């Protein structure tokens, strides 16, 4: 009983004396028990006010359509710590296909999706109650290349007549842009290019759309097709193995197109506008980096994202993308680009109706990121 009373007095004494910081306060001329009690109370007082601690990072799951050097600005933002600086703990997941990315976004498995914006158009036309909206455009050209089995110095699209080509998924941007170039020679790398050059993608050549995304290179090496449409690093790796030769750039022949963009459900953007803005701000820094640094410098930064590819190869690929003006200087998804996207979808027979620009795109965050 006596010991309990002494502890109570010690606690009271410490509390009263702490404000004046007197030397005769607790911890002097006390029993070991009294000293322990004062020590515990002092620690509790200190830990209740952690003003100097950094705020917790916001966890954000980003599902990307593919892991490609084509998306260098995003990887620069990751490796340079721009997302962390913006208060975001980014969890990057590769979906291997725009359809799979959209499924992850709609289900809530991913907070943000990175894919061809055509997928958001499809979803809008299906009457989604929680529309997926594009808020930042990353690339402004197609990122794939036509690879032949033999080196062709003076390739023309008419060379594809009667040939077998390994293409992409029907309704996906790679395939539609390819056809768009074949049709009209205006914007995208799929049927558009064919029709542009007077070719009918259904009659003049055979396009194999049955092979999974990311597996066309291996199929081509295994003997399938006379040409294949490849992203990087696939195209360059085929060249290094002497298994194929890049004969045309779909990005160059299609012109400027809104090839990939970041999007999220309307409900997520309304609930977390600060997160979307912080995410966009970090991306803008990555975009500015790739537009102001050399291929060698960019390759050195993003190399950890591509550990199985040597730095020299990454540098070669980045230089190829820089030379064809792949990356925008900002992230604004303009209405003109959107209308062009719809033209490509119509050309490929994939568009039931043209949704309103404001229902599928917002430029609010990208514009603020420039301020």
Stretches with pLDDT under 50, minimum 5 residues: 1-48, 185-190
Largest sheet: 5 strands, mixed
Structural class: alpha/beta
H/E element order:
HHEHHEHEHEEEHHEHEHEHEHHHHHHH
Please state the oligomeric state of the protein chains shown: single chain
Written account of the structure:
The structure is a single chain. The chain contains 18 helices and 10 strands. The protein has helices at 2-18, 32-47, 72-79, 82-85, 98-107, 118-125, 173-183, 191-196, 216-221, 234-240, 250-254, 266-271, 273-290, 295-302, 311-323, 335-347, 357-360, 364-369; strands spanning 58-64, 88-94, 112-115, 132-139, 145-148, 164-166, 206-208, 227-230, 245-249, 260-265. The chain has a 5-stranded mixed sheet, sandwiched between helices. The protein has a 5-stranded mixed sheet with strand order 7-6-8-5-9.
Reconstruct the topology from this structure.
Blueprint: H1 2-18, H2 32-47, E1 58-64, H3 72-79, H4 82-85, E2 88-94, H5 98-107, E3 112-115, H6 118-125, E4 132-139, E5 145-148, E6 164-166, H7 173-183, H8 191-196, E7 206-208, H9 216-221, E8 227-230, H10 234-240, E9 245-249, H11 250-254, E10 260-265, H12 266-271, H13 273-290, H14 295-302, H15 311-323, H16 335-347, H17 357-360, H18 364-369
Helix pairs in contact: 1-2, 3-13, 14-15
């Amino acid at each position: 009983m006596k010991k309990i009373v002494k502890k109570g007095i010690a606690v009271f004494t410490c509390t009263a004396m702490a404000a004046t910081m007197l030397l005769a306060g607790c911890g002097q001329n006390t029993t070991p028990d009294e000293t322990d009690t004062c020590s515990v109370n002092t620690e509790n007082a200190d830990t209740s006010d952690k003003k100097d601690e950094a705020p917790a990072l916001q966890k954000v799951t980003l599902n990307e359509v593919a892991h490609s050097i084509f998306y260098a600005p995003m990887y620069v933002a990751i490796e340079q710590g721009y997302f962390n600086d913006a208060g975001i703990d980014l969890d990057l997941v590769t979906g291997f296909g725009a359809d799979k990315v959209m499924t992850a976004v709609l289900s809530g498995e991913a907070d943000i999706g990175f894919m061809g914006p055509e997928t958001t158009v499809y979803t809008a036309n299906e009457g989604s109650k929680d529309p997926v909206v594009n808020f930042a455009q990353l690339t402004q050209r197609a990122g794939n290349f036509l690879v032949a089995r033999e080196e062709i110095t003076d390739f023309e699209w008419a060379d594809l007549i009667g040939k077998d080509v390994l293409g992409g998924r029907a309704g996906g941007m790679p395939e539609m842009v390819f056809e768009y170039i074949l049709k009209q020679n205006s914007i995208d790398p799929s049927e558009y290019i064919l029709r542009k050059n007077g070719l009918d993608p259904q009659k003049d050549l055979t396009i194999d759309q049955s092979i999974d995304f990311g597996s066309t290179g291996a199929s081509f090496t295994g003997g399938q097709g006379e040409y294949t449409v490849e992203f990087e690093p696939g195209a360059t790796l085929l060249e290094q193995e002497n298994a194929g030769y890049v004969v045309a750039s779909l990005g160059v022949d299609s012109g400027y197109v809104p090839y990939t963009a970041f999007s999220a459900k309307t409900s997520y953007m309304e609930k977390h506008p600060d997160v979307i803005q912080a995410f966009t701000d970090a991306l803008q820094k990555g975009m500015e980096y790739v537009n102001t640094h050399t291929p060698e410098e960019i390759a050195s930064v993003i190399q950890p994202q591509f550990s199985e590819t040597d730095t020299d190869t990454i540098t070669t690929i980045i230089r190829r993308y820089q030379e064809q003006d792949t990356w925008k200087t900002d992230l604004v998804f303009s209405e003109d680009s959107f209308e062009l996207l719809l033209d490509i979808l119509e050309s490929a027979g994939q568009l039931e109706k043209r949704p309103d620009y404001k229902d599928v795109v917002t430029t609010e965050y990208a514009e603020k990121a420039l301020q």
